[in-house]
Amino acid sequence: MFGASIGRGAQRIINAMVRWLAYGHVNPNILTVIGVAINVGCGLLFGLGYFFWAGIILIVANLFDMLDGQVARLSGRVTRFGGFLDSSLDRLSDMVCFVGLMVFYARATEFHSTLNVFLAGAGMMGSVMVSYASARAESLIPKCDVGFLRRPERVVLLIIGALTTHPGSQNVFFNRMPQVLWVLAVGSYWTFAHRMYHTWRELTKVEIEQKAAAEASQKASNAVHERRPEPKLVH
After folding, report:
1. Average of per-residue pLDDT values in the chain
2. In terms of C-beta density within 10 A (0-12 exposed, 13-18 middle, 19 or more buried), how is residue 46 classed?
3. pLDDT value at residue 199
């Protein structure tokens, strides 16, 4: 109940911001570009080791990511290019955070970890493949957003990993970024495989339906041909 109240309060604030931006004739594409620029700053903070502040910046960046689409719909400025721009820059936003983590764990510090560099790289590749699989599949089938590790979930996990990072702390809930990287790496490929399977299943279903329709059409054509009376010969 308390959580629901917080959610409703946050949604009212977001709705007010959307209305203010829409009535102020702010271009939604500008919000998209601002969001990715903030994400670049987040990647830099990850690379420098300021994980907590990177998590805060990531929250702000994704606020812009939520606003641009809603502002576009409310102001009637939804365009195909806007959707393309938003989708493309989302991929850049994802990758820049992972690159920052790879740089941090590759540096010659006490936190150096080849394993974490690998996990961050694998997570980056997996997140791109999840998004690509969805985009490619939706040129063949109506929708492909299955899987438990979509972009919002990936962002939330990165935020959790960042905000819980407090070097030197012995608290069991702190410094969870390595575990987050494991979830991102494994979960992304699981989601990618799920989308591949879903697309195969949907396409197979369409092919079966098309084949059945073609066979039914052929049978109907044959039946009409068989019922057609033979012409009478005139002597």
Report:
1. 86
2. buried
3. 95
Which amino acid, 70? Q
**Spatial contact of 201 and 138, defined as CB atoms under 8 Å apart:** no
Please name the residue that has the structure tokens 């700053």: 41
pTM for the structure as a whole? 0.83
Task: Determine the 3-state secondary structure of 224 from DSSP.
Answer: helix
pLDDT of the residue at 6 = 47
Q: Which of 149, 139, 180, 140 is nearest to 54 (CA)?
A: 180
The pLDDT of residue 1 is above 60: no
Q: Is 29 exposed, middle or buried (0-12, 13-18, 19+ CB in 10 A)?
A: middle
Domains, in order of start, for the chain: 2-221 (1.20.120.1760)
31-33-34-36 Cα dihedral, nearest 10 degrees: 120
Rounded Cα distance between 11 and 201, Å, is 37
If residue 94 lies in a helix (H) or strand (E), which one and from where to where?
A: helix 80-106
How many CB atoms are located within 10 Å of the residue 13 CB? 11
Q: Which helix (H) or strand (E) holds 166?
A: none
Helix, strand or coil for residue 59? helix
Which residue type occupies 49? G
pLDDT the model gives residue 231? 59
pLDDT tens per residue across span 124-149: 999 999 999 998 998 899 999 898 89
